[in-house]
Amino acid sequence: xxxxxxxxxxxxxxxxxxxxxxxxxxxxxxxxxxxxxxxxxxxxxxxxxxxxxxxxxxxxxxxxxxxxxxxxxxxxxxxxxxxxxxxxxxxxxxxxxxxxxxxxxxxxxxxxxxxxxxxxxxxxxxxxxxxxxxxxxxxxxxxxxxxxxxxxxxxxxxxxxxxxxxxxxxxxxxxxxxxxxxxxxxxxxxxxxxxxxxxxxxxxxxxxxxxxxxxxxxxxxxxxxxxxxxxxxxxxxxxxxxxxxxxxxxxxxxxxxxxxxxxxxxxxxxxxxxxxxxxxxxxxxxxxxxxxxxxxxxxxxxxxxxxxxxxxxxxxxxxxxxxxxxxxxxxxxxxxxxxxxxxxxxxxxxxxxxxxxxxxxxxxxxxxxxxxxxxxxxxxxxxxxxxxxxxxxxxxxxxxxxxxxxxxxxxx
Length: 412
Known about the structure:
By secondary structure, this protein is of the alpha/beta class. It has 14 helices and 14 strands. The chain has two domains: 9-196 and 389-405, Glycogen Phosphorylase B (Rossmann fold, 3-Layer(aba) Sandwich); 207-386, 3-Layer(aba) Sandwich (Rossmann fold).
């Protein structure tokens, strides 16, 4: 138990953080500031992904510590195991519980610190395949390996022996729950808490407001506009989307696709690949790369349709944000999105990696304003009902507050 009168402290760990703007980074920020507003002292540990970023900063009132190794090299995240463990031991009096957002790497130092110090540790997967190791397969394929290759599987077994000692696992969707159960995690160790959307930030706009936003962004008023938000990586289906968009432009010569986000630091980064495709096929006037930006909402509100052809998702927060913005959605029919969209009601769903089906769905919405409006209204209603920040943050606060008050260490 904590001393009377002292606020409970939580240390949140995440591989990457603001100013990167992917779904995982956004959710970590929501949880951090939500816990702060719920009465916790919050410190956040992440990697210094850009050398120009300060090693210590305050964001939303949360103290952010960015650790070495600095820079963008793919393998540097593994060096964070050593620096994070040292920092956790050094700051041990500043927190009472640990919450890991994306435990494929940071689960190791967090669990070691938790076991050494007797502090509870909760692990949250931001992606499918984090426990099994399947998450690493697209990157490992470049070296002719998979998570089942013997050198990788040996490391994963050792890592998972440690991770299974966590007090609990957060599942953001039924797909993550199923994966945890298949990996041998007991059901009473799984806490189901979905990702959240700021439904007061992501809101629909009327036609006049949309015109004003487009004018500000330099987007033509009469152009059919599709938008994608998220990391520019192969598992998001972006090479497929660019091939489809080439066909869309043949049918609608003024069409514009806006890709909001960057390739990030992982081996799955495909930004250069799709930029080369755009250049080679003369699509420069039809595809806009924004990079990592703060005003994601503006591009959602300026668009006519949201397209998300991902192959693999644990939740699909970008889809929920688009729905909250009142956008009709075209998305892949995959397990990680089944908790977010309702096929035919809030979205047009298509088989993953089906170029013809994706093209047909996008064209249907761009040509049928009534369908687009109906999907958008239903999507907004669903986002408000199921994914508001208030209820999600309360679930985190209740869980961590219970662990801290009861002085719970590791499970079992």
